Amino acid sequence: MLASMLKRVAVCALTAVCVVSCAKQNKQPFYSTGVVYCSESNPVTFNPQLDTSSTTSDATSHQLYDRLLDFDPDSGRIVPSLASSWLVSDDGLTYAFQLRRDVEFHNTDYFTPSRNFNASDVLFSINRWRLPTHPFHNVSNGSYPYFESLGLADNIANVERVNGYRVEITLKRRDSSFLANLATDFSVILSQEYGSQLFKEGNPSQIDQLPVGTGPYKFESFRKDSYIKYLHHENYWRRDINAGVNALTENIDEGIEGNTEDNTKDNNEELGVANADTSVKQLIFDITPRSSLRLAKLMTGECDATAFPAQTELEVIRNREDLTLAEKPGLNIGFWAFNTQRAPFDNPNVRRALAIAIDKNTLLEAVYFDSASRAKSLLPAASWAYQNDADDTAYNPVLARRLLAEAGIEPGFSMTIWAMPVERAYNPNAMKMAELIQRYLREVGVEANIVTYDWKTFRRHLQEGLHDSVLIGWSADNGDPDNFYRPLLSCGAIPSGTNRAMWCDKDYDRLINEALKTEDLDKRRAIYHQVNRLMFERLPLVPIAHAYRYQAYRNEVKGMTINPFGGVRFGGVEKVL
Amino acid sequence: MIRILARYSILFVLTLLVLAVMSFSLAYLFPGDVLANLTGIVPANDEQRAALEKQFRLDRSYLVQFFYYMGDLFSGEWGYSFTSGIPLREEIGIAMPATIELATYSMLMALVIGIPLGYYAGMRCYSSSDYIINTTSITTYSFPVFWFALLLILVFSLQLDKAPLSGRISLLFDVEPVSGFILIDILLSDLENKRLAFKDAMSHLTLPTIAIGAISTASIVRITRRSVIDAKNQPYIAAAMSRGLSGGQIFFRHILRNALLPILPLMAIQITTLITNTMIVETLFSWPGIGNWLIQAIYQRDYPALRVGMLAVSSLVIMLTITVDMFNRLIDPSREKYEHAAI
């Protein structure tokens, strides 16, 4: 009887195992028609002009849209994109762009384009953030944090259509970082035709929720906290992105002088025919806030690539044969910013006391493990203006206690540390860092309370200035130093919400403006060194670390590259099972 | 019969009323703005606030407010989620069926495996096969469900790579939600790869169903076994044996149905455990159900969502419990002696 019983149990168990194992058949060709990317959070909007968070630009910028210019991910040089060539006038104030002719917009359920991309779309896209009188300027809150933080709109005198495929932009002052700004994730090109259609229908805000662009994927659906689905854009102008970029980089030097259009076009067409069918039909962002779950999904093949692997997980990924871990030094900075508009943090001595009360090296070890370098100023070593001998704060709790006493801060003084709720390369675990800082501060008699909200609320409250101090950071959008100094600490960046220290200093603003007036790199470098000195003296924020960037993906995925200048790119990515 | 139905419906309505009062008072008990907690809309300016207050009668007495609150609940206006801005009814309308689906399959698994095993063990009580079944079921029953689910994930997903660990179906399939039950929706859909999608959904279902079902199965085995042993010891069994009936006849005529009767009410108690376990396991498998959804709402301090979510889950549990209890009462007249309806 026992034997028959055991036999039955065995049969049951076998059937169960079979059900499980037979069900797993990911080798079906169907699964290679889509790439699933496990992203860390919800995009705030589908228009990266409106938001600077990297979640938004990861999800939208390189998937749905194109820019006039692009960065070459390897060299960092500016390469043609929707603008096939450009000319800069001798006085450095007028930029003329020649546009591509063969670029189609997305054809979706909610919009059918009747024409290809042309100069009106460029005017529409730039004027939207530039002109307060533009019908779309105030749509979706009308806030363009990236452009506002750089004061870009004030510097553009005119954007003019010369003919259907030629646009001229005139600046008021020389700006040596202007082209770089047009190549960032935020300077995307929207469809003017779609805009005017929505305007007629009286539903303009739809432009940011149901997006239309020229990028390699078009929008299909979005469910908050679950997924974003994109479909492949059949008539994408750049059939094979990698080949396209290579061809373009070869032509870049000529590109500056003009007329490479035909050349690159031929290249693309040739490659396009050969590769037409290998690209994926669907791109899916599987929104998975927990980093350990993203890794687990990557291991089971439910994700093909993931965002922001945690530092503790890197070893696991390296040890697995079916996964690839790509790494590159990143253009980013993680810092601890004080709200300099609130007492007592408006006192530089208090800020200094708090800054030297913490041991940055411990934070580096405990939070980043060995995947970041200590930050002295805002710029990482990858930038050309990096200052190796910049002043840095040193751990000194005794001095910290004395400074606090001199500033009239009683022991037991309590403050808040806001720890951002999402992982970023520049701060993979803000909560843990906040706890460490809390402990350091207790030693100098300061009680710190840790505050956190969901990402959207967190950022809104930060912008309102409700924090005492915050652990956050910045990923640069281009290699230009101005991209660090201006958005993070200039007066103009307070309303746009990228100046987390709420710091406004006349000397600082004067210096960083001066740096843009010259194209001589040595002169600019000298000015930025002065800025570093100024920052060290007044310490609106404590620079903590520059992290490496990591991207983990399965070996089946071909054509993934790390883009150090912003969001992840899926154009040209393939999946070979 | 009619009296029983009336009693249960009164009980049902009263319980729901108490729950509605609780959910309404949550709007006042949660920190923050009452208006925002109640509606999920954060008024942009004073004019809008005044208009909303008027619409929801916040300027009137609590009783009037509650009356209109009930009206809104019945007309399906449950407010909006703070974080997504989507009507809560819509969100719950997606999350709830996912939970019910998982719970249903787990219950089916528990019934299909648990009852026959229980009968088998009961009929051969105190034999070695009974001891094996009994030991296994006690062991399984003592597993904390989250631990068991994690163990399944660790072994079958991460080590053996046999089953996916999150979601209802690979996101590559675009299944239109019609009924909310993924398997039915796949059959109703016009997908090209229906078979593949079905297989994919099944593989997603397997682990969570086993995780939840195993524990319910264990308890059903034990309940059934006990009940069969009790029935076997009844004098009428001895009488039947003395009349010379064969083992099969005794089993089918006298034990099967008599043992089944006491099982049903005990199974009703299992429903609450089942739903709770489902909600726990959901979060582990990222199953887009109500448990997962409520946890997200807690993380994000989405008070309107918590208020309605609590009401929805508790209504579901009460509804199921009362229905099953009433059903028991109707098929088992001997329970007439319990005069009052009870949960």
UniProtKB/TrEMBL annotation, chain A:
Residues 78-493 form the Solute-binding protein family domain. GO terms for biological process: dipeptide transport. This is ABC transporter substrate-binding protein. GO terms for cellular component: ATP-binding cassette (ABC) transporter complex; outer membrane-bounded periplasmic space. One of its GO terms (molecular function) is peptide transmembrane transporter activity. Residues 1-23 form the signal peptide. CDD domains: PBP2_DppA_like (cd08493). It comes from the Bacteria. InterPro entries: Peptide/Ni-bd, SBP_5, SBP_5_dom. Keywords: Signal. The keyword Disulfide bond does not apply. Belongs to the bacterial solute-binding protein 5 family. SUPFAM superfamilies: Periplasmic binding protein-like II.
